[in-house]
Amino acid sequence: MLFRNRFLLLLALAALLAFLSLSLQFFHLIPMSAARNGASSKSRKRIMPDPVTEPPVTDPVYEALLYCNIPRVAERSMEGHAPHHFKLVSVHVLIRHGDRYPLYAIPKTKRPEIDCTLMANRKPYHPKLEAFVNHMSKGSGSSFESPLNSMPLYPNHALCEMGELTQTGVVQHLQNGQLLGDIYLKKHKLLPSDWSPDQLYLETTGRSRTLQSGLALLYGFLPDFDWKKIYFRHQPSVLFCSGNCYCPVRNQYLEKEQRRQYLLRLKNSQLEQTYGEMAKIVNVPTKLLRASNPIDSMLCHFCHNVSFPCTSSGCLDMEHFKVIKMHQIEDEKERRKKRLYLGYSLLGAHPILNQTIDRMQRIAEGRKDEVFALYSAHDVTLSPVLSALGLSEARFPRFAARLIFELWQDREKPSEHSVRILYNGVDVTFHTFFCQDHHKRSSKPMCPLENLVRFVKRDMFVTLDSSSTNYHDACHREGV
């Protein structure tokens, strides 16, 4: 008995020492082992801080953590919340793809070693991950709209290719799908158990990361779905403007906005100094280093807790990262004050918003098709939509961001329909242009559908300070 007690005591002590060792490593109190390329352990330490509460002042590291959207615990959300006498009749989901490998490489540095094969026993973990891979392997040759039918249905490279979805990106959208399925299917019965293909509308851009993100969300939402019922449409434009993409005035706003960005960068002497320091480390001209968009690659290192790249001249480090990230944050703040990006957004987002309200109106009239719509897109898709809706204070779309439009029917007055807008699970309806004052004039808990319809069909052009009353005229007016 005495031997057993001593053994248990030693076992507990060993477990405590192991825990303390891991904790010290995580919080940088002891150095990590030397890197394979010979850099010192000090320069190769972990760079992932521990996220806590939001800091009182803007912190670029905290903002970067939010952008990474690292899967952790199940999040709380406000989707599907409404008084009992309201019935959910349709849901329209606009997502940004999940975590991806960089689109740009920092010159003369080694690419971050990220494995893009999917492994259920590797973090980040999701209980549906292995089943997702198995189900995707059965869907090869699916009859999606070209060129989607020739794309891989899930990432599968030992070393990620440029722009490829990672395991983190898949898990992010499996989580999104499972969360929405629990709310919209299990709780609200949006789709019947014998749902038909015409009750879904699925659209994605022609990038593997958006198709795969859409499939991951769909699998989390509808596990083991019937491949014969699934059809993804291809959208050539990141603005989802379909046949309404030609808009000269929108392009003029974009050119002016890009000029504003350029002038702001020139004013930032700390940023230029930082680019110069980084260029010396990688031994390239500053102009070339800047053109390679180093923050894109550094964000990958940061989000995956991989040390920043080193050369014989030194290492890119957290201070470089923070300066560039802080400039991005300041750029977003200045953008809100100007109306250039808003002008671009109102015209850029109009086609997809118009398509959404047309679908809502058909459902409000009694149609039962396309009650669940999913658009799998990019940050450059979500950002203009957020701005056009008046959500200028919303953070830049993180990996796997979701913007949701819910349509509700009043059971007591079946002819009346209302909408809710949610961004990453937060109800932002009363922050929008079309409904920001509604709750002051009405006791109704949601925004009338007609408010959104009137905004998209008419008031968007008023917000644009335009005498135009339709999209075509606004796109072709003179004097911008």
From TrEMBL:
CDD domains from the UniProt entry: HP_HAP_like
Protein name: 2-phosphoxylose phosphatase 1
Self-association and partners: Interacts with B3GAT3; the interaction increases the 2-phosphoxylose phosphatase activity of PXYLP1 during completion of linkage region formation in a B3GAT3-mediated manner.
EC numbers, comma separated: 3.1.3.2
GO cellular component: Golgi membrane
Catalyzed reaction equations: 3-O-[beta-D-GlcA-(1->3)-beta-D-Gal-(1->3)-beta-D-Gal-(1->4)-beta-D-2-O-P-Xyl]-L-seryl-[protein] + H2O = 3-O-(beta-D-GlcA-(1->3)-beta-D-Gal-(1->3)-beta-D-Gal-(1->4)-beta-D-Xyl)-L-seryl-[protein] + phosphate
PANTHER family: 2-PHOSPHOXYLOSE PHOSPHATASE 1 (PTHR11567:SF110), ACID PHOSPHATASE-RELATED (PTHR11567)
Role description: Responsible for the 2-O-dephosphorylation of xylose in the glycosaminoglycan-protein linkage region of proteoglycans thereby regulating the amount of mature glycosaminoglycan (GAG) chains. Sulfated glycosaminoglycans (GAGs), including heparan sulfate and chondroitin sulfate, are synthesized on the so-called common GAG-protein linkage region (GlcUAbeta1-3Galbeta1-3Galbeta1-4Xylbeta1-O-Ser) of core proteins, which is formed by the stepwise addition of monosaccharide residues by the respective specific glycosyltransferases.
Chief location bin: Golgi
SUPFAM superfamilies hit by this protein: Phosphoglycerate mutase-like
Biological processes annotated in GO: chondroitin sulfate proteoglycan biosynthetic process; glycosaminoglycan biosynthetic process
Protein family per UniProt: Belongs to the histidine acid phosphatase family.
Topology relative to the membrane: Single-pass type II membrane protein
Subcellular localization, as worded in the UniProt entry: Golgi apparatus membrane
GO terms, molecular function: acid phosphatase activity
Pfam families found in the cross-reference section: His_Phos_2 (PF00328)
Taxonomic superkingdom: Eukaryota
Keywords for this protein: Glycoprotein, Golgi apparatus, Hydrolase, Membrane, Signal-anchor, Transmembrane, Transmembrane helix
